[in-house]
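Reopening this one. Same input as before:
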Amino acid sequence: MKFARLGAPGSEIPVLVEGERHFDLRSVTSDVNGDFLSGEFRSQVAAAHAAGSLPELEGASDLRIGAPIARPSAVICVGMNYAAHAAESGAEPPKIPIIFLKTPNTVVGPNDNVTIPRGSEKTDWEVELGIVIGARAAYLDSPEEADAHIAGYVVANDVSERDFQMAVSGGQWSKGKIAAGFNPTGPWLVTPDEVDVNNLNLKSFVNGEPRQDSNTADMIFDVQTIVHHLSQYVTLEPGDLILTGTPQGVALSGKYPYLKAGDIVEVSIDGLGRQRQEFVAWEATR
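Same output, byte for byte:
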């Protein structure tokens, strides 16, 4: 199944996506949130759809696409999870997952404009596979238990400001990761049965020119390992979002210029959809 949220920020309508058709889920849930995802949401939606109680949403194609999940309680990120990206960053591949945090207000729609922070000279893109938690996870005994706690997957752009991340970080990366809107997410939440999460192509483009091109098979730590590892340190709640790292091909490598106002970034993952953001100057939004 594919789920989306359509409409103006703060007023999104939850929908089931089937090809070009969008079915209104408000008879089943008020939103695609932790309460919804922690239940038997797939069987509930399937039953409602079979009963004809999910009307097709008129004018869906004209509505803004919001993030496919309501604001999560936590956004937890894995760094340096592709060996080639670690190398282009001047680091050795990690022996254990490197973790940092983004704030919930970074999560925005996949095609929303992204504001370059005031004073930024090194705003960067990062296509990433995102995991959405569907059941509380704490102290899982093995990676094999992780699948039962996953509601689905999303494509995300882990936008980063490298000077804030590296030069003025004080040793923590989050300063360069937490500007409002720095995590475009979606267009869809896709349930695990729809994709082979360990074999998905990831790509990014800037102004139509290719940048990243890799596959989730190249991750150092796979999805199940990440969820198990995180559960030893944090209680993951339904609706939480985990970003799993980015492959090589970002501006930090020195091969490409950093983003400037007017640049268009597109990121995609097979089966999870495609995003498009225009980057705009901070002054232009105030």
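So the earlier flakiness isn't reproducible anymore. For the record, The mean pLDDT is 96.
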